[in-house]
Amino acid sequence: MDYQAVLEEIYAEIQPELGRGKVADYIPALSKVDPQQFAFSIITEKGEAYHVGDAQKNFSIQSISKLFTFTLALDIYSKSLYERVGVEPSGTPFNSLVQLEYEHGKPRNPFINAGALVITDSLISHYQDDYKAFEKIIGFIRDIADDQSISFDPEVSTSEMENGYRNLSLAHLMKSFDNLDNDPRTVVQTYFKQCAMSMSTEKLSRAMLYLANGGTDPLTGKKYITPPQTRRINAVMLTCGHYDASGEFAFHVGLPGKSGVGGGIVAVVPGKMGISVWSPALNKYGNSHAGTLALQKFVEKSGLSIF
Ligand code: GLU
After folding, report:
1. Is residue 127 flagged as an active site residue?
2. C-alpha to C-alpha distance for 35 and 22, rounded to whole angstroms
3. Among this protein's residues, is 66 annotated catalytic?
4. What residues does each domain of the chain span?
């Protein structure tokens, strides 16, 4: 298939949709981003890469980082991780507090904020220090993207910390239920730093290859997790990767995917390729409006779907 031609077609068709929606203004540093931007990248397991738009422009990966910390924690804790965080869709917004109270401080899944905070907490405990844990997170992201220059944007994490009342509430609530080992503020701070990782669609699509290939990077041969663990991460992406719009994403796109409020979305076609799309204006669920549509078009045109 001529993937470049498919991407070019999508790029032309998506133009009227760019800027529709709203950038994530609850994080002041993100409210300044130009909503008209768009990029789409894919890379096959053989390393053939195709791009359109601003594919080298870095943006804030935000919740896409939850995928990488989930991988690290699953590798360390294996099944015992699920004693602290579930694998059910939440059906609630990403930062909801209500369900957490009802369910005694055990988050539904690793991709809502509460679940991601528990995962980050588990990494801080394992590495016995928040800086060391963050070094491991950055190191892992650099390895899977095969790019040692990747870093985070302190302006974004500081801006989020200054306004992080809701995430701090989630962390304190879980602490009160004994589902957080470390100081809530330290956990939230580390979580905001991982969310502030700055990457392009080119780098993110590359970073997804281990999940397309049973946990081993097909280009470097590095083994990160086992095939069963990879299947589980992909399953949780499919069912929980887009918050309360996860059903809709599975229905329209039908690929394991994870979105972030920076407007990025990553997805995998198991056995075939890593995908990343970016456009900062979000729909009412906090997922990229044009990005979601572009992925839908990609699946329609390429016929690549897990269903
Ligand atoms: N850092 C964001 C928050 O915690 C991530 C949300 C997202 O990307 O969905 O609110």
Report:
1. no
2. 8
3. yes
4. 3-62+198-302, 65-195
* Residue 244 near ligand 1, beta carbon < 6 Å: no
Q: State if residue 62 touches ligand 1 by the CB under 6 angstroms criterion.
A: yes
The residue whose C-alpha atom lies closest to atom 10 belonging to ligand 1 is: 95
pLDDT digits (tens, 9 = 90+) for 125-162: 999 999 999 999 999 999 999 999 999 999 999 999 99
Candidate CATH numbers 3.90.76.10, 3.10.20.600, 3.40.630.30, 3.40.710.10; the one for domain 65-195: 3.40.710.10
CATH topology assigned to domain 3-62+198-302: Beta-lactamase (3.40.710)
Burial class (CB in 10 A: 0-12, 13-18, 19+), 20: middle
CB 203 within 8 A of CB 73: no
Q: Is 50 a catalytic residue?
A: no
Query: pLDDT tens for residues 287-296?
Result: 999 999 999 9
Q: Is the pLDDT of residue 13 over 90?
A: yes
